[in-house]
Task: structure prediction
Amino acid sequence: MVAARYKTAFQLYPYAKVTAQSAAPVRHPVVIVGGGPVGLALALDLGSKGTPALVLDDHDGAGLGSKAICFAKRTLDIAHRLGAGQAMVDKGVVWNVGKVFHADQKLFDFNLQPEPGHRNPAFINLQQPYFEKYLVDGITRAQARGAPIEVRGRNYVTAIARHDTHTTLSVNTPDGPYQIEAEYLIACDGARSTLRDMMGLSFDGRVFEDNFLIADVKMKADFPTERWFWFEPPFENSGQSALLHKQPDDIWRIDFQLGWDIDRARELDPARIRARVDAMLSSQAGHVPEYELEWTSIYTFQCRRMQKFRHGNVIFAGDSAHQVSPFGARGANSGVQDAENLAWKLDLVLKGMADQSLLDTYAVEREHAADENILNSSRATDFMTPKTDISKIFRNAVLELANTHAFARPLVNSGRLSVPCNYAGFALFGDDALNGPGDTCPGMTCPDAPVGDGFLLDLLGGTFSVLALGCEAEDVQAHGLTAKAVRIDAIGDALGARYLGDAAQAVYLIRPDQHIVARWPAFDASAVARALQTAIGKA
Amino acid sequence: MLTLTPNLPDPDGFYEELIRAHEGLSKEQSDAFNARLILTLCNHIGERAVLSAALEAAK
Result:
């Protein structure tokens, strides 16, 4: 039998016996362990490219409870490319405005998407089980089109044996054990990764000495759809900081920062939680609205990562490889970017169009991204939970000054929200021969912009593209790989501002994960071909 | 003129460095460090009127 480690919100991939369970081990090009946001996105991306992907999950659906809630624009752009984004935006709560308070003073508010011309909003709030459901729906649609994706629920990996060319997995199921072989084994099995433990790999970093009480509350309230964050909240017994944020289905996320030395059992007493929530809500609404506690938990946060994300033909992605505190929404969002980075590289390697060493660039680029996320998340956590008297003095000085003086507001840190990583300077990137805008330098992700009735990112899709703005270009080939020409002559204001600046025309080479490889003032087939070789590690 | 609008590149990086400079210092040592830091910055600014305005802004 396979024991349940947690309750599921809903079933997504019920267990079904497959013939492989009573036959000799079958070799799969890619086996993904873990059917969370990262594993599902990776499977959908690989399968959409025609590379077979098998997902094993020890449960049969999305885990219940409060996990990721905040999905960033880049994640939604990726999900849209995979055919799952619209359902997320339709269900999600779109928000752009945040307000930061110190006690009962509002310090400032911020708008995350001040400029128009993007398909997706800066952020949506959506409970993780829905995010997973929409990815599974996307997988079901892709399967109907013939995409070679399979998800096996209640398939629990009990042991692995590593070989030069593959890994053998021992898998337990409700019908007993069987074995599978994986050419590439991708560990998307979360922060408590059993694969990482089986391989004896360390996961080092920093524990923040603080406890956060998370309460998801169901209520009808007409608070605006904004992120409200308090330092030293004015309501009774609310701890050092508090957060109020709306999710779909009339659920509100409330966080209280309780400190380090607490009695967890006592703090989880529903009556005590309700007293805290009552005080917060009545201070905002003038009375205590009717509500139910949907989910409560106490968390301690950690920032840590594996030293190396690739170990031969075993590769780690998402929380199994790196873990951050939640301030900044950098966990699930960075994991989905891991998946996107890995998908096209694994696809090219398995199709024989790139060498295995391309997979090392996944590790290098995403280790860098993890460091950036850990740095931002650690700084936010340090600001919110000052560890020494002097750091608290400075923190409160910043908050007091920010009330009156604009200069102190950039120092106020209640979380720096997830933005895609810039890979400038890494090996797979090429020339910046265009004197162009700073937001589209080689290494960065493509910002979206309206084109005709649609959006730029849809025209790029998930292949290498040669984007020609206001000039000619042709498809470019290298090592059997084609970068398809995408020519746009009707250049709107947003597209021009983001990709041309003062230039009259431009050519960009763009990767399948929509990071910019190189850019030029005109099309030169040999320069683009060289950059394409660089981009797949064959230069 | 005293600048009271944002003027600091990399505010998060600067803040981290500032807090780190105090690591391991006692209360007295931190106070003394702050005094030295203020005096050093005042000399760099070098404009009496600006310093008077800053003393007022920090009240």
About this structure: Residues 27-45 of chain B form the longest helix (19 residues). Chain B has a mean pLDDT of 96. Helices of chain B lie at 11-21, 27-45, 48-57. DSSP finds three helices and no strands in chain B.
